[in-house]
Amino acid sequence: MTTSQDLFQRAQDSIPGGVNSPVRAFNGVGGTPLFITQAQGARMTDADGKEYIDYVGSWGPMILGHNHPEIKQAVLDAVEHGLSYGAPTETEILMAEKVKELVPSIEKVRMVSSGTEATMSAIRLARGFTGRDKILKFEGCYHGHADSLLVKAGSGALTMGVPNSPGIPEDFAKHTLTVSFNNLDEVKEIFAKYADEIACIIVEPVAGNMNCIPPVEGFLEGLRSVCDEYKSVLIFDEVMTGFRVALGCAQAYYNIRPDLTTLGKVIGGGMPVGAFGGKKEIMDFIAPVGPVYQAGTLSGNPIAMAAGLKSLELISKPGLHDDLEAKSRRLCEGFKQAAERAGIPLTTNYAGGMFGFFFTEEDNITTYEQATQCDGERFKRFFHLMLEEGVYLAPSAYETGFVSTAHGNDEIEQTISAAERVFFKL
Ligand code: PMP
Description:
Blueprint: H1 4-14, E1 36-40, E2 43-46, E3 51-54, H2 69-81, H3 90-102, E4 108-112, H4 115-130, E5 134-138, H5 155-159, H6 170-173, E6 176-179, H7 184-194, E7 198-203, H8 219-230, E8 233-238, H9 250-253, E9 260-263, E10 274-278, H10 280-283, H11 302-315, H12 320-341, E11 347-351, E12 354-358, H13 368-372, H14 376-388, E13 391-392, E14 401-402, H15 409-425
Parallel strand pairs: 3-13, 5-6, 5-7, 7-8, 8-9
Antiparallel strand pairs: 1-2, 2-3, 4-10, 9-10, 11-12, 12-14
Helix pairs in contact: 2-11, 3-11, 7-8, 12-15
Bound molecules: 4'-deoxy-4'-aminopyridoxal-5'-phosphate.
4'-deoxy-4'-aminopyridoxal-5'-phosphate is lined by residues 59, 114-116, 119, 142-144, 155, 204, 208-209, 237, 239-240, 264, 274.
């Protein structure tokens, strides 16, 4: 039988690092990445035939669990008609209408094929709309790998120790201003300095790429008023939080209305989909109505739309997000109590279907500095011992965990028991 070890060795001869996206290589934790052969519900099976309870969920999209029968059927039905036309279809209208229904700040929406495309396009649009060059982002937030955004970035860039990637001309990077997440004073200072040069603020309303850090009270409200004062565009990057923190996205959970929203992950139900949308007057600035160019050969792909639309329909069930949040809460409380029993200092955060845990003595993690000062070595040991227990967590201390509707009480309680055994071994 071919094992993950064999496959990883072989992959490295033909694929840089053996993977098609860096964090998958386990650089953040060491060891051999699991090569997956199949996944159903809350569980994944690797090439060695071992089964895991999965809290990565393909990095967010699998909110209904893996290979949900109705999404699979929607894809199979769509395949019957053809794979791609490069011409408009009715499904794209249904998708746009559904997004508008669920996210009232979105008056018009454009489909793309990844989260990176969504944020890159939203920023170009904000720049074109305002006629300004500078953008403001937060240290440790990740918005995909477009040039302007790999400045003090989180996620894999942070895990690999390259928050500022080489290959980005200084002339581009100089337009990206960065300040600390959850620090409104710094935002106000930088706006006072650059006043009418800043096209937009882009923010993850719950930071999910430096572990999981919810906004402190007043932070998102403050961003809204600063943008109003300086006529900057407020972009919520909801690629991760969208349809996951709440049905109406994090903007509904925190009750703030951004000007533009970027979406990805859940909106595709596991297929490659991203989207950006918002105020009509801004969205009508993109081609073919407006002058800002943006396009895509496979944008609105009929198979991807079928999967995404079905996913959005299924998550529209009342109470579904409350249940998800209850699972995140139980997991966090269970981890915390188990760690306490083993004498391991641990802090947890959660919002809707996202959770994070930090090996630290501090009891409230709200900043990038705090997240990066946690005990990384302890995390690595914890990660590998959890794998041995059959629990697949994100292979980096700078990623969020995801629960799905397929995670039942059994899976959650098994995970907490496994964590307790592991905490005693740390
Ligand atoms: N924005 C956020 C908040 C993300 O979490 C991610 C990916 N994790 C992206 C953008 C980029 O999305 P993609 O990987 O689909 O390009």
